[in-house]
Amino acid sequence: MAKIGVLGAGTWGMALARMLSNSGHDVTVWSALPAEVDQLATTRRQKNLPGMVIPDAIKFTKEVAQACEDKDIILFAVPSVFVRSTAKTAAPFIPDGQIIVDVAKGIEPDTLLTLTGVIQDVLTKDGKHDNVKYVALSGPTHAEEVAKDLPTTIVSACEDKETAEKVQDVFMNDNMRVYTNADRLGVELCGALKNVIALASGICSGLGYGDNMRAALIIRGMAEIKRLGLKMGGKESSFDGLAGMGDLIVTATSKESRNYNAGFLIGQGKSAEEAKKEVGMVVEGINAIPAALELSKKYEVEMPIVFAVDSVVNGHAEPRKVIYQLMHREKKSEMVI
Predict the structure, then answer these.
(1) Alpha carbon distance 190, 197 (integer Å)
(2) What's the rounded Cα separation, in Å, for the pair 99 and 93?
(3) Which amino acid positions bind NAD(+), per UniProt (predicted)?
(4) Does 292 show up as a binding residue in the annotation?
(5) What is the pLDDT of residue 17?
(6) Average of pLDDT values for 180-202?
(7) What confidence tens digit (pLDDT) does each residue in 104-121 have?
(8) Which residue of 84, 112, 175, 264 is most buried, as measured by CB atoms within 10 A?
């Protein structure tokens, strides 16, 4: 049995907390929102996972120390925009040598750090956390399906093989198959940038375009992600695997995907703000666009789909016009990545 502290009580954090508790682990969940803690502890329901019952064994706390002290694993499950502030709040209670697992997907726009990089940046500044182990847990994993115990696969990414395997052992069960990967950077880039491509896929569906265009966007979108990732030092196998193409496929095709759904609404004529409000949950693809644009410029990588999504989301261009422009770009060989 492992002792696990979960920071964040959204759909993904709670779906994993339930799964881990049902696997026999000791789980404590913290939220920065006191009202959310009270609601979850009282109702044993997560509002965006209405069919899921939260096990009685899961403990909820308003004190971050209780979720961080004496834990085998601390799980960061907050939206990308809150990772830095959560790390700062938790830092005084995180011991050196701790295993930290991040399941949020994003890139910080100001620093261009992936989210485990953000946590590491916060913790190493005090000189007391030089031996913390950072793991990115990512893959084709809708919280809604994990909450129903449907078969799922995911990747435990860490440069330290022993740590990756420890996380693998904790999260593996009859319904969750966990693979390991040493390419933490590549895995995190895939998790963040595929959300932007999922927006493009949703926009096309909202416009009434068919599967042909969506398939093209998925494969060409991964080509853009891979071009950037390889220049940044990621491994090609990460982009072709579960955390890359696997996660992109599910995020860019499923009605369970908030990024696809937001894109669909934008394609139907709604603004990005209207789409986010209607989806009712964080749309990480919109948050990832500024960092994606900056990384494209910094590493001199061509990313036309990402730039097209930015134009549409920020109201600079009409979606059909942007699709027309993508269709009429300069000729390329099919063999070119």
Answers:
(1) 10
(2) 13
(3) 8-13, 82, 143, 258
(4) no
(5) 98
(6) 97
(7) 999 999 999 999 999 999
(8) 264
Angle at 251 between CA 250 and CA 252, to 5 degrees: 95
Tens-digit pLDDT profile for residues 203-212: 999 999 999 9
Q: Is the pLDDT of residue 337 over 70?
A: no
Could you give the CA distance from residue 134 to residue 185 in angstroms, rounded to a whole number?
Answer: 11
Beta bridge partners of 29: 6, 60
Place 97 in a pLDDT band, splitting at 50, 70 and 90. Answer: very high
pTM of this structure: 0.94
- Is 3 assigned a ligand-binding role in the annotation? no
pLDDT digits (tens, 9 = 90+) for 8-34: 999 999 999 999 999 999 999 999 999
Residue with tokens 């502290």: 5
Instruction: Map out the domains of the chain with their CATH numbers.
Output: 3-182 (3.40.50.720), 193-327 (1.10.1040.10)
37 annotated as belonging to a binding site for a ligand: no
**CA-CA distance, 223 to 229, in Å (whole number)?**
10
- Annotated binding residue 259: yes
CA–CA separation, 28 and 100 (whole Å):
15
Q: What is the mean pLDDT of the chain?
A: 96
What are the tokens at 43?
Answer: 């109702």
Q: Is the dihedral of CA 284, 286, 290, 296 positive or negative?
A: positive
**Structure-token pair, residue 74:** 């601390």
What Rg do the C-alpha atoms of the chain give, in angstroms?
19
Q: How far apart are CA 11 and CA 33, in angstroms?
A: 15
Q: Tokens 């942007």 correspond to what residue?
A: 322
Name the residue among 2, 11, 180 with its Cα closest to residue 74: 2
**Could you give the CA distance from residue 113 to residue 268 in angstroms, rounded to a whole number?**
33
> Of 71, 133, 166, 194, which residue is the catalytic one?
194
CB 254 within 8 A of CB 202: no
Q: What is the pLDDT of residues 277-289, one digit of tens each?
A: 999 988 999 999 9
Q: Is 82 annotated as a binding residue?
A: yes
For residue 221, say whether it is annotated as part of any ligand binding site: no
